[in-house]
Amino acid sequence: MSASLQSAILEYIIPIVGVYLLAYFVHRRSGFIARRLLPIGGFALRHRRPRPERQRTLYGLVSSAITIAAYMTATAVTIGRFVDATTVVWMIGLFTAGFGLGARPLLSDYLSGISFIFEDTFDVGEKVEIMGIQGLIEEVNLRMTLLRGEDGELYTIPNGEIRIVRNFSRGRYSVTNAIFKIPTRDLNRSLTLLDELGKEACTLLPNLIEPWQVLAEDNVGQHTELKVLAKAQFGKGAELRPRMVSLIHERLSEAEIELAD
Questions:
Q1: CB count, 10 Å around CB of 48?
Q2: Is the per-residue pLDDT at 39 higher than 80?
Q3: Which CA distances in Å does 207 have to 96, 176, 201?
Q4: For the segment 109-130, what is each residue's pLDDT rounded down to a tens digit?
Q5: Is residue 167 part of a domain?
Q6: In a domain, 163, yes or no
Q7: Is a pLDDT exceeding 80 seen at residue 239?
Q8: CB of 194 closer than 8 Å to CB of 214
Q9: Which terminus of the chain, N or C, has fewer Cβ atoms within 10 Å?
Q10: CA-wise closest residue to 52 among 116, 118, 121, 125
Q11: Does 41 score more than 60 pLDDT?
């Protein structure tokens, strides 16, 4: 091996390989580093521990940011081996300008991903609707969000495309309803019974937030359709409905009010 080749290996190749190996090591340990940084960085609320879903979301975002920073630093150090610091600054400036013009969608994806670190829009495990697609959030990183559809398919959504999010996993209450057909001759008696039962149901049905509302259809014939609207504890609407229907059937039967098929 010639002296010049040996000198090049020692001066350039080994340091460059070492820098990228270090970046790869940081990438592999990015999850661990993220778990250590999050409490220090104050991303969590000071007075209470963040939800497990929020923790997993932040781990994914911050570990992705650490990986990108590690490889960008390794690239900058590599370039610095061949050119002076002033030239590196100019190259970074030119690259940033060119990147901003030619890769706006990609830049928008990463900027949106950074904003997700500070904005609690949605978390891993939550049911959401994004761009008309409903499903569960499986993973969030700086570049994209992975959404598992209701039929099992996996959607990869660039963060820059996320504008409106419908989050089914957050809210104050859920709405449920039940529809009954009764003889019109029993309409007034049924309305009175259901109004009184709605107040009593708040103690009989734990998931009911407040007395329900009863609406009657305008077109009245031999039978009248009644709709009972109820507010349930958030996420408990499906559980409340069969209990509510059973209770209403029972009380109407006791009052000898027959339901139409």
A1: 7
A2: no
A3: 55, 11, 10
A4: 888 888 888 888 888 888 889 9
A5: no
A6: no
A7: yes
A8: yes
A9: C
A10: 125
A11: no
Tokens matching residue 87: 């030239």
What distance in Å separates the CA atoms of residue 261 and residue 180, rounded to the nearest whole number? Answer: 9
CATH number for the domain spanning 28: value is 1.10.287
Contact assessment for residue 259 and residue 189, using Cβ atoms and an 8 Å cutoff: no
Helix pair angle (187-204, 237-254), 10° resolution = 130
Q: Is residue 82 part of a domain?
A: yes
27 shares its domain with 108 = yes
Rounded Cα distance, 13 and 4, in Å: 13
Judge contact between 176 and 244, C-beta under 8 A.
Answer: yes
Residue 252 C-alpha from the chain's centroid:
42
233 residue type, one letter: Q
Contact 57, 140 (CB under 8 A): yes
Residues 12 and 106 in one domain: yes
pLDDT at residue 46 in the model: 47
Reported confidence tier of residue 244, pLDDT bands at 50, 70, 90: very high
Structure tokens at 31: 């999850």
Cα–Cα distance measured from residue 162 to residue 172, given in angstroms and rounded to the nearest whole number? 24
133 lies in some domain: no
Q: How many domains does the chain have?
A: 2
Q: Which domain holds residue 93?
A: 3-120
Question: Do 17 and 108 reside in the same domain of the chain?
Answer: yes
